[in-house]
Amino acid sequence: MRGSLIIVSFFVAGLLAARWGLLPDELIENDFSMYALYSLMFLVGMSIGNDTKALTALKGQHIKILLVPLATILGTLAGCALVSLVLPGRSLTDCLAIGSGFGYYSLSSVFITEYKGAELGTLALTANIIREIITLLGAPLLVCWFGKLAPICAGGATTMDTTLPVITRFSGKEFVVVAVFHGFVVDFSVPFLVTFFAGW
Amino acid sequence: MLKIVGIMLFGMMVGYTFRKHNLRWIQKAIMVAIWLLLFLLGIAVGLNDGIMNNLDTIGWQALVLAVAATGGSVVLAWVVYRYWFTSK
What we know:
Chain A is an all-alpha fold. Chain A has 2 domains: 1-30, no CATH class; 53-199, no CATH class. Chain A is 76% helix and 0% strand. Chain A has 11 helices and no strands. In chain A, helix 6 (92-99) packs antiparallel against helix 11 (176-199), helix 7 runs antiparallel to helix 8 and helix 7 (105-116) packs parallel to helix 11. The radius of gyration of chain A is 18 Å and the shape is globular. Chain A starts with a helix and ends with a helix. Chain B is mainly alpha-helical. Chain B has 2 domains: 1-50; 54-88. Chain B is 83% helix and 0% strand. Chain B has 4 helices and no strands. The longest helix of chain B has 31 residues, at 55-85. At the A-B interface, helix 1, helix 3, helix 5, helix 6 and helix 7 of A face helix 1, helix 2, helix 3 and helix 4 of B.
């Protein structure tokens, strides 16, 4: 939660600095964000390649564990496709790109900003932060209504870090391995799915 | 788009090559890059009056999308849990 607050405060700081005209012209005229994004993607790739924890966790697990990230991805895309019909001014691919953030709001909003502009980027940032908050606060209710996998699927890409504590608490310790593996797979899918739908 | 994915795959190969080393600094570097990019996104939004005047619309649309995305996931989570994760 503290990490989310720090991230949001950077966004708000940029917004206020721009509103109050505190920025030097060079910063506004030059678009550094593409280079920052390239560096970010390289680093994200490195961290995935370097981390063999998820593969180790998979040993001794039943193949059915693969169904959990699949449920998250398909369920999210179905839900977003459905509401794209009622949201004014948002196309199917806009909604699918935003949904493909799976709660990984920092990365998805940055991508969507680059491909679709700042407005959709802001929508992606907000929607995916709300998803993380729903998971953090709603985990006990989700377990009640939809079973012990529900907080894992709701948490999306965040289930190996920020939402892992609430999952451990409300789904139980036996679901920690599922949550870590699920977070890894969904996390990995974010850059592919977001760029796919945003570039469509 | 292909460029981005290509850069990420290259990063993965580099990361895998150094898998015996503990690359703790990567997580910190990722955080810094994300802070920078969100600061820049904040600037882009602040300079754009069209977005600033529409923040309320963006807010409720974000809520609708978040609920739909989470809702779709948990419904399928229930199906998977019910049929594959509970012993009858």
